[in-house]
Structures are given as C-alpha cells and as structure tokens.
User: Fold Phosphate acyltransferase from Hymenobacter properus.
Amino acid sequence: MKIALDAMGGDYAPQAAVAGALLAAEQLAGRASIVLIGQADAVQPLLQAAGPAAAALEFVPASQVIDMGEHPAKAFQQKQDSSIAVGYRMLHAGEVDAFCSAGNTGAMLVGAMFTVKPVAGVMRPAIANFLPKLNSEFGILLDVGANAECKPEMLEQFAELGSLYAQYVLGIAQPKVGLMNLGEEEGKGTPNTQAAYQLLKVNPHVNFVGNLEGRDLFDDKADVIVCDGFTGNVILKMAESIYDIMNHKGMMDPFIAKFNYEAVGGSPILGINDNAIIGHGSSTPLAICNMLVQGFQMADSGIVDQIKATFKS
Amino acid sequence: MKIALDAMGGDYAPQAAVAGALLAAEQLAGRASIVLIGQADAVQPLLQAAGPAAAALEFVPASQVIDMGEHPAKAFQQKQDSSIAVGYRMLHAGEVDAFCSAGNTGAMLVGAMFTVKPVAGVMRPAIANFLPKLNSEFGILLDVGANAECKPEMLEQFAELGSLYAQYVLGIAQPKVGLMNLGEEEGKGTPNTQAAYQLLKVNPHVNFVGNLEGRDLFDDKADVIVCDGFTGNVILKMAESIYDIMNHKGMMDPFIAKFNYEAVGGSPILGINDNAIIGHGSSTPLAICNMLVQGFQMADSGIVDQIKATFKS
Assistant:
C-alpha cells in the first residue's frame, strides 16, 4: 500500500513533512510505504540529509506549490504541476491509496471535488474531525467547514458518512449519532435541524440518539456528532484554543492531551471516491506522521467502498 | 431601587432563591432592596426561618408557577398569576427596576416580548452571556439562544446592543466587536454573515474589528462577539461543559474559575424596554445573588435608556 504526502504543505514544510514522513515510514514498515510529492530542490537535500532512512521514501517531483493564501479553485486549476494537483492525480489513477496534505485546505477540497469527485449519491462531501471523549477514545464531528450552510438531506448524509467512518476506521460498533442543536427536545432548532431530525429518526443506516447540546460534545451520548460546517468549525477551533490555553498553563492530563491535533492526525474528507486527509496548517512532524498513519488506516479499512455501497442503494 | 426575583424559578427553588436573595440584600444594602415573588406557602416559611435578615426582603404573592418543562407561550398566557407573569407586570408598571428568574427560559422570553416589549426599532431582542477573557475580565457573546437563525440586520443590531452593554454596564470604552465566523477573511461564511460583515463595516455605532474564529473567543480581539442564537448556544454550553470537566478534575485556576456561571450572574435579555435577566436552571444561592447584583448594575447604568436613544435615531 502507498500513502502519499504533499511535502510542500503546511507552515513548516518541507522540513516537518519530510521528518513526519520518516517517522511514518518506520511505523508503517512492511504495511505501507510513503510517497513524498514536492519540489526536487526543496525536498531532495532533506532526503540526502536523512541518510539511509530516506531509502524507505519514494519521491515524486512536482514543480509548483499552492501557497496557503492563494485562491483555492484558481490556484488548483492554474498550477497543474503543484504537489496537491499531482497528489490527487496519482490518487485518482490508483498509484497511491491515500493522499495527505497540511497545505491549502480549500485547494485540497477543490482537488477532491474535481479530481477524485464525490461518491455517486453524495450531495456534498464533508470534512470530519475528532472530539476527545471523557470515557472513550474519540468521537467524530462533521462537517467542520466544507459546507457553511447545510440542507437537512446533507446533514442526514453526514450522519451516514460519520457512522461508516466510526464503524470501519475507528472500530465502533453501531455508533450512536447525535444532531447538534440548541436543545434536546424534538422540535428544537432551525428549520434545517428540525427537518434533519425527522430524516434521521427514520434512517435505517443510522443509530440516531436525537439532539445534542454543546455540553454533550465530550460525553457518551454520541460517537458521531452531525452539524453544519459553520457550527463544526467554531466547535473545532474553540476546542483547539482550549487545548492551547491549558497547555500554556501547564494544566495537562490524559483527557486534555487528546485535544492536541498532533495526536489525532488530520481531517478526512468523507464522501469522495478516494482517501484524502487535510492536515492542520501548523502540522509538526508528529502531526504529519499521525496523518499518514490515519491515511493508511482509512485505506486499509476499505471505508470508501463501504461508502460507495451505502450510497448506491 | 428595587430588584425583583422569581422565588419559584430554578431547579433548587424556592430554597436557593431565598438564600440568594438574602445574600444580595446584604450586598446591595442602602442601594437597592430585593422583592421576592412566589407562592406564599412555599416562600414565607423560608423567610420566617431566616429570622431578622428576612426583614430586608419584600414579598409579593403569586399563586401559580410555570414549570421548567411547560410550553412557554401557553403557560405564560394561561398562568397570569405565575411568579414570572407577576414579575413582568411589576417591571412594566415601574414597581421594580429589574426582574430576574432562573425559571423557564422560554417563558421569560415570552414575557419580555409581550409585557415589556422590544424597544422601538429593535427587530428581535437577544440573550447575552459572558465569556471569560484571558487578559481582561469578561467579553459578551450574543445571541445565545433567543433566535436560532438571524438575518444580517439582526446580527448588526446585536452588535449595537452588545456594545452598549459592554460600555454602560461593564465599563469598557469603545468595545471591540467581532463577528463569529469560520474564517477571518472578509467574504468568509454564510450569506448571512457575509452580509452582516458589510453592514457592520460601515455602522457608526460599532467599533467593528472583523470576523472572529472559534479560537478567538477568549483572547483580546473583541469585547463583544456577535453570532446567531444557534452558534451562541453551542459555544455557551460547550464552555459550561469545559468548566464542569475541569472542576471535576480539580484543574482550576483564576481563568477557568471565570467559566463558572455562578460567578457571572445571569443572561440579560437585551433590546427590551426594561431590565430582565434569565438565570441558569441549576442556579445556586451564589448564582442567584450575582444575578440580582447584575440586575442592580443594569438598572443603575441606565442601559435601557441608552438602547432606546440609539435605536430611536
């Protein structure tokens, strides 16, 4: 199996990318190899400096880079030899099994939509993220930013996508799905969440447990938490700031430590025909390594085939 | 000055209400007196048990109680002698200067809308809450639940209402106002937040600092954070759960301690013709006391007159 990494993506690229790829190659030895995609001038000196360990990494040149501040769609179209465009082409051609990047999030989404494309039947793919749980490992939160506004049918599909990820990648049997809302009672919320509630209540693919409130993010009520990308993005970034504050204060314990994005890997794009993961902009080597391991786990689980099968029906 | 309290509101009423009223009467002695509204059978034995301290409290009987689970509008209309209905009638008649209740939030909102009514020019009143700040005392977040969906013009008005509260009640000169969004750049977000951004940019009553992300809630970027009631409610309840978790773990410091709702008082309803505050359902005597002190501060500040003056123009 081959897991590709955008060597030019992220605030500390290419150094952190190469260092993270080396860590992952060691962890995944015998199960998957890592393919680094990037500018030869930037990456090859780092590989030479790494010595014999670099032999485990495959290098694929890409002459261009999409910067963090660039307009996603424009940059993706114009820079066809960028590391992100080359990564998606290899993914789509089946030359690699997953593609990971800590680069421009918008360009990663554009590439997903235009190269590997949404699974037939999926209205809009979602970006998922992970929530530390007090009494278990992690829950899934989606969408966290791909779709600021969501129709009820989109929220319903996110519930299905999140359930499949929880089941096949995280190994949670019959994952409980909750709908983020401003009150527990049926009938609470916006017209969209009210309608989504009615769809989820009767959806046979989803173990729906009802509405959740902001206080239920870390408890046992649900393994999969569904919301629009606006709400999910606010939750995700608020959680990150809580971690930063606690870390700065030196107030750390195993639960708080799970808020550290470095520990979780990246944010998978769910509902597309291949395995793509978006990493945090300020990814460290550890974060890059965990994102690549997560890419392997996704590919190994066959999650995309499960999604295709579910949405075919 | 007279500050009224719904003696029947909250999970621990009437005991916590009476105990909180006694604490507040002591703190506000010489500046304001407390008026307790509730069922004589329930409240008077508690006043007798309190001994001479109870002499500072005025008691007004109300034969009915609106329970936490009741339908707000229906209950408010049918129970005209409930403590909430009596409280709002006294507030509207000018017999008290503020009315506070830890009871049914929806009924408190209904009473605000139908008895004291929105200020002329205010489209929809908002419920405000307080965010602990790392480098200052508190910021204001609104709306936190009165309006699940908000038109751009409503978000603009929340910015004005929050600015006035920050200025006149919290004493923050030229409060900075931020718009909660999923990215910092102008143009990010939903059609509603995009349009609200354009309105706020040119609003002369507001010191607008632009979009905020979930990670900016506790930093210095803004004193007033504007969002729809869905997002605000999720943020508020997530913050409460963070406090509960930290408290349970014994991980406490002065910043985390400010997340405790007991320390802040309640949630003022802004944009109505009088001072009304909604308390947390599980209010302790300390929370009740701080809500009453906050009611005094609101009345003392003349915030409602400032709001009326701003929205008249």
